[in-house]
Amino acid sequence: MKNKEILLGPLSKNNPVIVQVLGICSALAVTSKLEPSFVMAISVIAVVALANVIISLLRNTIPNSIRIIVQLVVVAALVIIVDQVLKAFAYDVSKQLSVFVGLIITNCIVMGRLEAFALSHGPWESFLDGVGNGVGYGLILIIVGFFRELLGSGTLFGFQVIPQIFYDWGYQNNGLMILPPMALIVVACIIWVHRSYNKDLQEK
Amino acid sequence: MNKQGNTYTILYASVMVIIVAALLAIISVSLKPLQQANIEIDKKKQILNSVNIASTSKDAVEMYAKYITDSYVVDVNAEKVEGLDAFNVEVAAEVKKAEAERKLPVFVAQLDNGDKKYILPIYGAGLWGPIWGYISVDADGNTIYGAYFAHQGETPGLGAEIEKVVFQSQFVGKHLFVDGEMKPVAVMKVGQKPLNGAEYVDAVSGGTITSKGVQDMIENSLLPYNAFLKSLVK
Question: DSSP secondary structure string, B167-220?
């Protein structure tokens, strides 16, 4: 029961993006299209889960005064490995993601989970927590990416989904959706919907 | 041993750094050949792309061997430079040199219908990082047959639109020479025209700096080819 909560909690009631409001920066940067949102989500899941396990295994040996540095080194090393492996085996995907892979290092969720969870829990729980938070983050990214690509470019995963006849009738893609501020507004709408379903999250 | 003591902390940090450095070095060295091969395949794909030949990572090497019949390096006076492989010339370094010192790679493509196209590499700066591409020119040394642009980190949906066919296809059929003088194609905001009378295409909306970068890149990279392009018409 407890493990299930660790894994599924971050998907809704304890979501890192819409409840803890972490990782907003990358939710803004990569979500103008669905595809980079998707690959970014998978990369973050891999990095958070692995970093959580490694830090959890080392947690009794890390000197307290340099624990943040140790966490950073582990995260940075993992991200570089992910980047190198993508370049060697999935060159096309790595070209698409370009700088975003490196930016995973700065994602507050990664450090946040290491600090708040992995330092005080065992490897298995930490792994579940990492996967849960990664999926919670990715879920929001994909929802935001879906709306921004659909309304901003009329496509999904690069395929045209809004039929040509709409354009002939005078429909226009909303260029504002592609710009970063709209990511914030879409995230805000998600938070609004989420809170109106979960009354206990509403602040008095 | 005291886990909060200075000695332990310093030892811990040193050992960690050595282990991580060794690990990353091993990974980097062992993956290098694979990555290098990918980069070369990707370059071949890009060159083929500029003459509108789509290839996949699997057949790029084969297609390249089939269509790119010749490649050589020229200097600013259109004289061939011997002993250099056009494929290995670092265009990124060349565009920073003075025109007279540049090594200018040329790739010659022979299409299925026998037409010869000359492919010229270009390189410049966008908003966030480098942008580059290939322009293919008809045998008259004037008409653009195809254009391919790529970028490292332009904003998706904005500057990154330069890699889309919609943007690149605008260049097809444009001319590099106006009244016998070389005036490379300009990239202008809708409604504006270049002052020097050059032919022009529409910029990417919301990608002003990237569009300007494309224009500067084309100008800076193609002007040294002036003599070479003229020499194609005898």
Answer: HHGGGTT-BSEETTEE-PPEEE-TT---TT---EEEPPTT-HHHHHHHHHHHHH
Asked if residue B38 lies in contact with residue A87, where contact means CB atoms within 8 angstroms, the answer is: yes
| Radius of gyration (C-alpha) of chain A in whole angstroms | 18
Q: Which tens digit of pLDDT belongs to each residue from A91-146?
A: 877 776 767 788 888 888 888 889 888 988 999 999 999 999 999 999 999 999 99
Beta bridge partners of B177: B182
Domain boundaries, chain A: 2-201
| Chain B interface includes A84 (CB < 8 A) | yes
Residue B138 CB neighbour total at 10 angstroms: 17
Judged by CB atoms closer than 8 Å, whether chains meet at B35 and A62 is answered as no
A81/B24 Cβ within 8 A = yes
| Nearest one of A65, A45, A49 to A57, comparing CA atoms | A49
Q: How far apart are alpha carbons A91 and B35 in whole angstroms?
A: 8
Q: Is A64 on the interface with B (CB under 8 A)?
A: yes
Contact yes or no for B38 and A70 at CB 8 A: no
Quote the CA–CA distance of B115 and B94 in Å, as a whole number: 29
Phi and psi torsions of B72, nearest 5°? -150, 170
Contact B116, B109 (CB under 8 A): yes
Using CB atoms, pick whichever of B8, B23, B156 lies closest to residue A36: B156
Mention every residue, 6+ apart, whose C-beta is less than 8 A from residue B75.
B81, B100, B102, B103, B104
Task: Work out the minimum CA distance from A48 to partner chain B, whole angstroms.
Answer: 18
| pLDDT tens-digit readout, A158-186 | 788 888 888 888 888 887 888 888 888 99
Chain A with chain B: Cβ pairs closer than 8 A: 72
Helices (H), B5-59: 6-49
In the numeric block, which tokens belong to residue A45? Answer: 């899941």
Q: Do B206 and A98 touch (CB under 8 A)?
A: no
Three-point CA angle B79, B80, B85, nearest 5°:
150
Which helix (H) or strand (E) segment holds residue A154: the answer is none
Average pLDDT over residues B23-49: 91
Of the residues A54, A91, A101, A151, the best mutation for testing chain B's interface (the one with the most B CB atoms within 10 Å of its CB) is A91
Q: What is the DSSP letter of B79?
A: P
